[in-house]
Design goal:
Rossmann fold, TIM Barrel, 5-stranded parallel beta sheet, binds sulfopyruvate, binds magnesium ion
């Protein structure tokens, strides 16, 4: 009896995110199977975040799921957003793709893929895209459902692991949080957006008309935070001031964790702190190293999740001490359990910060460094990352931009004794009504 010969197996490459498995994906795998063995290039977390949000599942979890789909023969990592490096590496006979890449961000990539496959003697199989379902629209839908505290909390560590620099912006209200949540701009190297939010003591207190002297209590700040939590899904870093007494800090850590906050930053000042940018005339006294280490360690013992981070903020440069003092403290704080350090400075040149980063990175290659470049704002994110920074926080920019805008409008109305002239500064009423969906 003639043996049934399997046709010579061609390799069909399929690039996937594989975070949300929907009928469109199953369909393309089935189509791929008709042409040969399906080799899935599964995008790594860092490849995805160059153009899209961090996936819900990490790479290993996605691999497990995709490997179990009938029709998938092999899964390999695709470490780049572009298919090109993997196509060169695996030299498949064909690549299969939905025809939706004819338009939009992938259209250029499509041309490159066609050229390369032609050069390699392979082909591009395009199949009609399954209308109505794709990972991006499903992602949108999931975002409108929201997140859980645990998922939000874990996201910061995942981002630190995969991104050259995590970009955090200050939010002091639901509305500012929504801007950070949704704003995206397309640049040559991918989609740019903010990775998370900073709950700043300065802007929390300023928005209440109060000075930033640790006088606004935690309960009031948690109420502000609730407004942000309710309408966003991105991770949050909380400005914990000095953390108070160790016994208070235990409660702060647990409250923040319960709410899904990813990290708290506490500063090593003595007593009730004053804002670091107040100027040299305000004397800032530092906590003793053992006392601050004790607070870190009590906080670490209090946390119930594995991923919550306590970041120690070094105020040596603010208080007039040299980089060597900050380094000495940083070593002690890391030893006490700090999950990262933030180095702060009022200097505009940035030399002190750069010197600290270089010295710290020599000793600790993985402990995250947080920078707050309010005064040394001439440096780009790429430069800060090259110094060794892991997180950049734009600590007060949403509030500082809103104040002059409000003054301008109020002044115009006073001057003209009507609001017509101010209208050009304003968002149209129709837009504000439509800004927050669900009013209908
Ligand atoms: C804040 O935003 O409240 C901070 C950063 O603590 S700074 O204002 O620069 O001290
Ligand atoms: Mg503060």
């Amino acid at each position: 009896m003639a043996k049934l010969e399997k046709p010579a197996q061609k390799t069909i490459y399929l690039g996937l995110r594989g975070d949300i498995i929907h009928p469109g994906i199953i369909n393309i795998i089935r189509e791929g199977q008709k042409h040969g063995r399906v080799l899935v290039g599964l995008l790594t977390d860092s490849a995805i975040t160059t153009h899209k949000r961090l996936p819900y599942l990490n790479y290993e979890q996605r691999r497990e799921v995709v490997e179990s789909i009938r029709g998938v023969d092999q899964v390999v990592p695709q470490e780049d957003w572009s298919y090109i490096p993997n196509l060169k590496k695996y030299r498949p006979e064909a690549i299969i793709h939905g025809d939706d890449w004819k338009e939009g961000v992938l259209s250029q990539e499509r041309e490159l893929v066609f050229a390369l496959m032609k050069e390699m003697g392979g082909e591009v199989i395009e199949i009609p895209y399954t209308q109505g379902v794709n990972a991006s629209t499903l992602n949108e839908a999931m975002r409108s459902i929201g997140t859980t505290p645990g998922v939000r909390l874990r996201t910061l560590r995942r981002l630190i692991d995969i991104k050259p620099l995590v970009r955090i912006m200050e939010a002091h209200s639901g509305l500012s949080g929504l801007i950070i949540e949704n704003l995206e701009i397309q640049k040559e190297d991918g989609l740019h957006s903010f990775d998370g939010m900073w709950a700043s003591s300065l802007t929390d207190s300023t928005s209440k008309g109060k000075p930033d002297i640790e006088a606004v209590d935690l309960t009031a700040r948690l109420q502000d935070l609730t407004n942000i939590l309710e309408c966003t899904t991105k991770p949050i870093i909380f400005d914990g001031d000095t953390g108070g007494k160790p016994e208070h800090f235990v409660f702060t850590v647990r409250s923040l964790e319960r709410n899904g906050v990813s990290a708290v930053i506490i500063e090593d000042k003595e007593g009730l702190k004053r804002n670091s940018l107040f100027g040299a005339e305000v004397e800032q006294t530092l906590a003793s190293i053992p006392d601050f280490c004790e607070k870190i360690s009590v906080g670490k013992q209090a946390q119930v999740t594995r991923d919550f981070m306590i970041i120690a903020r070094l105020e040596s440069l603010i208080a007039g001490f040299p980089v060597s003092d900050a380094l000495r403290r940083a070593r002690a704080y890391v030893k006490a359990g700090a999950d990262g350090v933030m180095i702060h400075s009022r200097e505009e040149v940035g030399d002190d910060i750069r010197e600290f980063c270089a010295a710290f990175r020599k000793e600790y290659d993985r402990v995250p460094i947080v920078l707050v470049p309010t005064t040394y704002n001439q440096f780009t994110e790429r430069e800060l990352a090259s110094w060794g920074a892991s997180i950049v926080i734009y600590a007060n920019h949403m509030l500082r931009s809103s104040y002059p805008a409000m003054v301008k409008t109020a002044r115009s109305i006073l001057e003209h004794e009507r609001s017509l002239e101010a209208e050009e500064f304003l968002m149209p009423i129709k837009e504000i009504i439509e800004l927050i969906p669900g009013g209908k």
